[in-house]
Amino acid sequence: MSDSPNPIPPPKTTGGGWRWEPPTPAELQAILPQYEIHMLVGRGGMGAVYKGMQLSLDRAVAIKLLPPAIEQQDLAFAERFKNEARLMGRMNHPAIVSVYDFGRTADGQLYFIMEYVDGTDVQRMIAREGKLPPEHALAITAHLCDALGYAHKQGIVHRDIKPSNVLIDMEGRVKVADFGLAKLADKTQNSGLTQTGMAMGTPDYVAPETLMFGSDVDGRADIYAVGVMLYQMLTGDIPRGMFKMPSQKFRSIDPRFDAIIRRALEHDREERYQSSHELRQALDVILTTPRAVSGQESSAVLPKQQPQTPGRTVVPSSRNPGSAQQRTVPRHEAYQPPPKAAPTSTLPYVIAALLMLGIGGWFIVNRQPPAIPTHAIETAETTTITPPPAPEPQIATPHSPQPTPTTTPKPPPVARPPVKPAPAISTPPARAPVMPPATVVPVPPSTPAPTHEPIIYRLSQLESQFQTAFERDVNTAYTDQLNTLGTGYITALDRATQDATKAGRLDEALAVREEKQRFTTHKFMPSIDPASLHKSVVNLRNAYRTAEKKYAQQKDASSLPLYDRYIEVLSALEKEVLAKGYIAEAAAVRTKRDDVIARRRQRAAKI
Description:
Number of strands: 14
CATH architecture of the largest domain: Orthogonal Bundle
Radius of gyration: 27 Å
Strand content: 5-15%
Shape: globular
């Protein structure tokens, strides 16, 4: 790559300018020299996003760039981009991605600088796990309601709530991103953005009123999208057509989720929750009060007949899942807590605990699992173990003022049905001690759990075993090599500083010392260098990169046998499931195997 500061050629586009080739990190480095550009992390309808470092403040940032060709062809698109930066810049909430800067490059490209969230998003979590545990879905939705409630009070409607726009950082904190389709609820601010009648948002998450030309959109459209997302987190599916409620698909799910989703997905927005706070209160009831006992009437409300709109999702009645009735829930009757229920003032603490123990644990399991020796394929012995309750962590003070907390009983844990383990990639760990069974409130009768549920667990088990073996057999050695390389790099910098000092080369000595400070702080080597960087530092960096590339190739090569083993196990599992007549489940295994094959192909291409 060239580091020349020569003008960057116009972005390459095809198909009327909508297929855009974003600048390489080196090209963007020349455009924005005040930032250190590390890599391109994503691209989509709103442009391209890069990970970088703001040199003046020494902090990681995400840089969003809009191609000039799109701005020239669609002024409304560019206006929405500016709108995103301005709206997010006005907001200051712990669950909303912060915007630091906004402007235009010298060659006319719009950009803004925002907080970089190191972690994942809910869409990737669902894709990886199939569906999320109810306690995770509850915690994520509660924080999402808090963020939207804040935005709605500012007069801002997100209009594109979906799992990929809800981020989870490495500490389990929820961050709402991409307000690119947001608009002010005030009618005076809406002109010009939707005059073509284009429906804004992602189809499965768009509220019915959004599709009506000339209709004013308010925060209740976001509530509809939250309902779709909650259903997807609980079941792994999108609610389309005459879908089953979560507790009808999986008996382990609290039936009270059904009524929350049913009301959030009301076709008539007047029958939905009227605010994010109201939806949050309904979630609080599940968190702070016990589950209803089988045979007792829930606090859910009665259905009423509602005409079905062609092409829109119809929410089935829980009393008659097969009917074509649409569930309508009066606002004043939904989710009234029992008279003696404890107050909900401890919710922020419990939610924080759930995120720290739940979502944070998700990262620990998938990033640094315990070591398991690798052996031949074998079927693990079926053992049902009820885990002990998690220890109570120390919770930090919430960001917003809260009432004095009182003791609130936690809902009992929900037991997961025994599942036949998948053939192991490596030998299973030693059996854990059997704990006394947890107390589980009986679940109201429902349809049997679908046969594909165990497949999700078995595929998740295989992925966990693969990640364990990968961390132990591949990544640990690579990390050790990088640590040794980093130590040698600092030693080389010290030697270069001494040589430059003795020779009286002040500029070189200062440049090398600054490089040592940077590397010691970040332990990271950028892929490109600014044109102003001293030649001696460039030479040292290039030596580091050469060694790093060699180690990365060794890492990729050593991972291929593990991928081959993984693919072999998945092929055996596919045959096993198909032999039992489960065609859909076998197809799910095939899809997973194809994904692993693609991952292996990417590794092999780097060698």
